[in-house]
Amino acid sequence: MANEPSISIRKSIRWGDDVAFEDTSTLVLTTGARRYVDLRVYLPENPEDGLPNADDVPALDRLEWGFAGQSKGTPAEWDGPRLVTPAHGAWTHWVDNQKPDGYEDDGFMYDQHDGLTWEKGVMEHPKTGKPTPYEEVWEDFAPAKDASGNMIAVNLVYAESGTSAKGMVIRVGDWIQGIMRDAAGNITVERWNFEVASKATEGWKRVVRIGNGELPCQRLFALNNSATLEGLGWSVLKDDDVL
Fold this sequence. Notes:
Elements lengths: L5 E10 L8 E7 L4 E8 L20 E12 L2 E3 L2 E4 L1 E10 L7 E8 L5 E8 L6 E11 L11 E7 L6 E7 L2 E7 L5 E9 L7 E8 L23 E3 L7
Antiparallel strand pairs: 1-2, 1-10, 2-3, 3-4, 4-7, 5-6, 7-8, 8-9, 9-10, 11-12, 11-16, 12-13, 13-14, 14-15
């Protein structure tokens, strides 16, 4: 588990002995300091309908789970070719659309020969509410780098004194994700991607929006002036800052 920024897409999930499936678009952005934003958005019944992305339609029922916070992990231990202890990860939820702040989930990770990662653990089943064994398959992608060959990872956080309002926005490479809960408990999430299909259409495109709040995702498009990133309660969280 190298401490480098990462982009992870979930390929499938399996509960107990059920058949593996995937009914969400799940993307996790993680910085080198292991802060992350994890958004799981239900796929449409009709693929042509796409992901929720309207300014005037909250579409909160399309958010299966959204959370952000701090993760930690330990690498796998090997005795020659024999796996002694698998890699382990734990994710503390600093802000969450359904769990209380401070909720933590964890799992064991097994690297596969095809480059995918198999995660196993026990988690509350969303339909039964009971702790249930699960298996997830993840695919990791190397983040895009800047013109100097450096990894791009920026983290903004928001916290409103005296209320439960808080939020986090992360850019890793060509992806940006954010989640915010306002003082009334309303959730807003967004996902952006820099598309380079052609010179005529390249640029940042919003691909998911759920909720009615405002997130500062667009401040992270250009990173040449750090002063423009902060404001309206949002501040840059540096690697050595405590969340």
